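Late entry, evening session. Most of the bench is empty. Finally got around to the prediction I had been postponing all week. Sequence below, unchanged from the version circulated by S.P.
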Amino acid sequence: MTQIGTVYAQSLYALAKDELCSEAVLTELKALEEGFRAEPDFLRLLSAPNLSKEERCGILDSSFRGKVHPYVLNFMKILTERGYMRYYPDCCKAYREIYNQDNGILQVVAVTAVPLTQAQAARLTQKLEQITDKTIELVCRVDPACLGGVRLDYDGKRVDDTVANRLESVRSLLKNTVL
């Protein structure tokens, strides 16, 4: 994440929080980020040097006026005017982190060899909420290389209880054992 993304996200979050619309802004930022990921040419268009700032902001107006919160539209215009629209994903990530921290939400990525059932995901979420005393936003991913078990990534930490990790530990132990 870039410093530009963090600075602009902090400013947007402060405004949205003061106006009691931080959750709505987060929802729209996420939706737009997914759209921009699906259509990366749109972000390139908003950064095109052969278009004037007014033309690029006009594109944003015609595309989003009345469809997104005015703060989100103006935020994108500011990024476009300053030539920072390429940092939009960083801004979204930073905004989400600020929002989560301010609202006691912890995003946890659970990696398993096979998809978790809804019941398993619910139990894991409940257990993590008891342990952390935070609201858990669980993101489930599948990685067949895990072989079994679960790996949890959160807050820059990793708890790895996968079969692959256990086998690697045994391999390392055997490799370093002197007979």
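Two things to note before I forget:
Residues 12 and 141 are 30 Å apart (CA to CA).
Residues 22-38 form the longest helix (17 residues).
Will write this up properly tomorrow.
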